[in-house]
Amino acid sequence: MSAEPDGPEDRLRRFATIWSRAVFPVTSTSSTRPEFEALLLPLARRLSEALVARTFDSDAGRAVGAALVDAHCTDPEALSRTLDCVDAYLVLYCGGDGDQEDLRARCARLQHAMAAGFARTLRERTLAEQEAIAQAALQAQGVVAQALHASEARFRAVFEGAAIGIGMADLDGNILQVNGALLRMFGVSEQSLRSRKVREWTHPDDAPQTWRLYDELVSGEREHYHLEKAFYRPDGTVLWTNLTVSLLRDADGDPQYQLALMEDTTERRLLNLRLRYEATHDALTGLPNRTFFFERLEKALGAGEGQRFGLCYLDLDGFKTINDSLGHAAGDRLLVEVADRLQSCATAPGEMVARLGGDEFVALTTGPDTQHGVDELAGRIMNALLAPISVDGRELTVRGSIGIVEGPAGERSPAEVLRSADITMYRAKSAGGNRFELADAEADARAITRHGLTTALPTALERGEFFIEYQPLVHLGDGSVRGAEALVRWLHPQHGVLGPDRFIPLAEHTGLIVPLGRWVLEQSVRQAREWRELRGGAEAAGPLRINVNLSPCQLTHPGLVQDTVDILERTGVEPDALCLEVTESALIGADDDLLKPLRRLAEMGVDIALDDFGTGYSNLANLRRLPVSILKLDRSFTQSMQQFPADPVDLKIVEGIVSLAHSLDLAVTVEGVETGAQAEQLRILGCDTAQGWYYARPGPPDRLHELALVDATG
Prior knowledge:
With 714 residues, this protein is α/β, with parallel strands linked by helices. It starts with 7 loop residues before the first helix and ends with a helix. 50% of the residues lie in helices and 20% in strands.
């Protein structure tokens, strides 16, 4: 056994040698094998470079496939041997120390590209030759007619020496002459071929216009026609040809014969079918892929009146965990088993299963009655996933979430159907997974609107579409305005004014809440400074305090303290004029690292309010360790006080909370005050400040200034 090559160039040459030895015997070339190997060496180098390139480019594979055709490697066996050689040796000799799994995937893609380049170049070359033959046939019609009379010997030489099949028949379809190439294509004797009439050569795959064109030609209405046609051989196999039929006229111009030129395209067609299969089927599972599925879905949605469709969109629950813990190879084996189970669920006419990508699959059923059929299909899929799947000796439990869309054909596009199924699937996943949900038009509309708002959020802040309204905070003892809570609004170009409940969760999900919250804080603090300047002589009543809400995302952002300090310094506002509100749920179980920024702000003089107190677990003992100075009591505790008499239990609860808060030196603010009786009851219970529609609804800053000015001047 010889030693391994020493370096990359040696390994490359070894690969080229193996390649040339495999392909040279089936190549029509006058070169010697060493000369042919020298021709393949730059092609091998290009494949090697494409295999290990930082950015993969399949153009190299297509170029190599085209170069094989240019090198006269046009025999289909040459392509087959080339692909086998690349598959077996390219990664071995040219892959280096790279990731073997990635290199194998790249090698497979290069093979596909080579096959595509080979097929395309061979097709273009064949079409060019065919066009030349057709032109020559047209130009030679008159010459051939005269030559039949002038020189039978000359015609026979041309007729028999042609590389393509040629046959001549009279206008009644009686076959008069055929050449050797045509006999070899059909695998029959001349006598057997001439015993059949042209009209007998029908095939189920004949194009609808095939015999109409033939009738027009033999009647003299058409000079020639060209199409792809299949023929049955005597052994039952199918011969596919590019067929050109021309009309031959006599010296007087009357139709006399028909001349057929046939090129055998069977191997090329099989290659195209293979490439078509690879383009429309998933390489891992063998299921139809997204391209094939959309073709079928489009056909189902374009069916006639009375036809319906049902679609199940499946996403595996927790598949990422399997990939991360066991590796992608185990994940792939899991997907293959899932694909096999799904395929066994869709065996009825009109049903199919496809893989859209990753761990997403889709099942389609069609017919006049899919309302119940699609539910049954979803049930079969859920049942098929119940049994554990064994991967590398581990029993893995697989579950899935399914979104179902069902309806009549012709009402929606494929993209709309798949979008609805995707939305519904995520609704099933959000509900806990391992279930299926039916599509709901209203839920789809909400999800689409939510997505539109999410994508519009970043530019909305840049375009200045947000504004702030202020709701006054009133002292229950003397009725004076002590401050205001800043409430952000979005003036959306299409949807109008949106409250924070419509977009704050989206901003938190996308991370935009940090720059948005910083903008709200700066605008609110600047407004507090303007109020202070406008009050002028009313300073004795103290500055108006501004309350700004902090989201959990802002609370964990490392720049919170520095941003707050910078804003206060730029605006010239003292820290005690600012109160930051944090929801109780955000601080449940908070550790010291989470509380550290709040403690630093509190030490600076910024008030910290515990918002929505009472909606969480209300761990009263936990209040002592929180750096808060204000409790904002949730409106759910005080709603009963709008009626007379108030619920005595609620009164006792509020009284207890107020007493506890005051014993901890915490002020108590109440939300949602809507009646005078409610405000008076809260004053009696000892609450400090309140806000609600009884005093004022959220509004522009000028209105709050007017209210504060009236209180300050009496």
